């Protein structure tokens, strides 16, 4: 089997796997990064969403051979150490998750949306999130959390001359 070098969450990782192995299984079974979930295996549910070169990508649909020189970010790499990403913080604030199974994919899709569109409308959010299914039906809270995160990110950028990470503060009790 060939060896592949991957840039995952800012670290170069090497894996010996078959070229047709989906990224999802490399992450979960070979690298122990289990945040991306197996939902459907055919790219419909979004539970396996990660970022590939800053684009929300369903990791069950892309093979390891397709990822030469790609930057991959998983939910494990979204936070800045122990400091949550604004989307993660908004998810907690709005108590979005019910069962939680789909939430990593939802969060990764939302973070990619806000990277491209820092002030999305409800229609923009619905379009960006349409590939992520939540059987618990938390779509209203998901939309609210994305708006909260967008406001926080915009506020952080406005004040970036003073302190570029002003919003990125730990949640109470975290260090």
TrEMBL record:
Keywords annotated in UniProt: 2Fe-2S, Iron, Iron-sulfur, Metal-binding, Oxidoreductase
Pfam family, one: Fer2
UniProt keyword annotation of Transport present: no
Keyword Oxidoreductase appears in the UniProt entry: yes
UniProt-listed SUPFAM superfamilies: 2Fe-2S ferredoxin-like, CO dehydrogenase ISP C-domain like
CDD domains recorded: fer2 (cd00207)
Residue ranges occupied by any 2Fe-2S ferredoxin-type domain in the UniProt entry: 2-78
Gene Ontology molecular function, alphabetical: 2 iron, 2 sulfur cluster binding; metal ion binding; oxidoreductase activity
The protein's name: (2Fe-2S)-binding protein
